[in-house]
Design goal:
single chain, 111 residues, mainly beta, 10 Kd Chaperonin, Protein Cpn10, Chain O, 6-stranded antiparallel β-sheet, 1 helix
Length: 111
C-alpha cells in the first residue's frame, strides 16, 4: 500500500492567487478590546502563490482587494484567501518587495 501525504500541496490554477491575509487588530488605537465577532477582516495581505496565467501578481507581493472578494479556505492549517487576479485592486511594484519576499519566506516558507 502506498503512503499518502497527510498535507496537500495545492497550487492556484489559471488566474487565481493565494493570499495570506493580514492579522486583524484586537484592540483600537485607544486600547479598547474588540470582540472577535466585531472585528473587520483585513483586505490586505501577501501573495503566497500565483497561477500560471497571472500577468502582474507574484509571490511576496503585498496587495489589497475588495471586502467581499475571494474565497477563504484552510490549506495545511492556514487560512488562505483564494481570489481572481482581476479582483485585486492594487499591489506593490516588484522592485519594492525584496524585503517583503524575505518576510514571506520566513513566515510561510513559500515564495
Amino acid at each position: 500500500m502506498e503512503n499518502i501525504k497527510s498535507e496537500l500541496e495545492l497550487v492556484p490554477f489559471k488566474n487565481r492567487v493565494f493570499i495570506k491575509r493580514d492579522e486583524t487588530k484586537e484592540t483600537t488605537t485607544g486600547g479598547v478590546y474588540i470582540p472577535e465577532n466585531d472585528r473587520e477582516k483585513s483586505c490586505a495581505g501577501i501573495v503566497i502563490a500565483a497561477g500560471p496565467d497571472c500577468t502582474t501578481m507574484f509571490s511576496g507581493q503585498r496587495v489589497i482587494w475588495g471586502m467581499h472578494s475571494g474565497l477563504e479556505v484552510v490549506i495545511n492549517g492556514e487560512l488562505i484567501t483564494m481570489i481572481r487576479e482581476e479582483e485585486i485592486y492594487a499591489g506593490q511594484k516588484k522592485d519594492t518587495t525584496a524585503e517583503l519576499m524575505e518576510i514571506a519566506k520566513a513566515n510561510h516558507g513559500v515564495v
